[in-house]
Amino acid sequence: MRGENIIKNIKDKRNKNEVFNLTSTNVVIKDNIKLEIDKLKKEVEKNAKRFVNILSNNCSSANLEKFFNNFSVTEFNLEHIGEKSDVIGVYLPWNLKKQIVYLYCFSAIDHEFMHMASTDLIGNYTCIGFCITYKNFKRSIGRYFNEGYTQLMVERYLKPKNHSYRTFVVIAREIEELIGKDKMENLFFY
Ligand SMILES: [Zn+2]
Fold first, then answer.
1. pTM score, two decimals?
2. Distance, CA 111 to ligand 1 centroid (Å)?
3. Judging by DSSP bridges, how do beta strands 131-134 and 139-141 pair with one another?
4. CA 4 to ligand 1 center in whole angstroms
5. Is pLDDT of 187 > 60?
6. What is the 168 CA–ligand 1 centroid distance (Å)?
7. Which one, of 127, 103, 104, lies nearest residue 116 by Cα?
8. Cβ burial, residue 163 (10 Å; 0-12/13-18/19+)
9. Interval between CA 91 and ligand 1 midpoint (Å)
10. Which of 32, 70, 108, 174 is the most interior residue, by most CB within 10 Å?
């Protein structure tokens, strides 16, 4: 099974300390999780394995190699953000060697993983699912439609606790009904 190798690689890379570069720890974030660095590493690894497992068994279009390549160069940060902000996570795929995830709620991790599984970097362009950005978000098209579809995919397969981007999820679902689920999922991952 294709997911099994990736799960093994996640563990191998972590053991060699190559996968995770966790900068902030001991930060109490929105969902009141306070993690020590070792615990945080374990939680990220555990969730990455769960993500690969679920997607490889349930979604034939999922591009888990893409996920693993992006995951391998991603630094995870737990950050506190003002209570007024409703942002719960951010994924910044700067380049092929350095990418950053900020988690303001740990439970946003599945959504950020879904971005990683659908992101390709090609020269000055970054394709994140249905969003194309030029020079790291200097210009972008499809950004919020992609957030809606990404969240729809997370809810379909990973049953998350939080439900962000409500309006965009509704729009994404209606467009998917017109185009067809299999075709949309394929376009999202490739
Ligand atoms: Zn997002």
1. 0.88
2. 6
3. antiparallel
4. 26
5. yes
6. 11
7. 127
8. exposed
9. 7
10. 108
Which residues contact residue 167 at a Cβ distance below 8 angstroms, ignoring those fewer than 6 apart? 148
Centre of ligand 1 from the C-alpha of residue 8, in Å: 27
pLDDT digits (tens, 9 = 90+) for 60-111: 999 899 999 899 888 888 777 666 677 788 999 988 888 989 888 888 999 9
Q: Which helix (H) or strand (E) holds 143?
A: helix 143-158
Residue 88 Cα, ligand 1 centroid: separation in angstroms? 9
Reference 160, options 86, 36, 50, 78; nearest CA is 50
Ligand 1 midpoint to CA 144 (Å): 8
Residue 160, both tokens = 């998350």
Ligand 1 centre distance from Cα of residue 110 (Å): 10
Please state, in angstroms and rounded to a whole number, the distance separating the CA atoms of residues 41 and 139.
33
Distance in Å, CA 147 to ligand 1 centroid: 5
Q: Quick count: other Cβ atoms within 10 Å of Cβ 183?
A: 11
Highest mean pLDDT among 19-23, 24-28, 94-98: 94-98
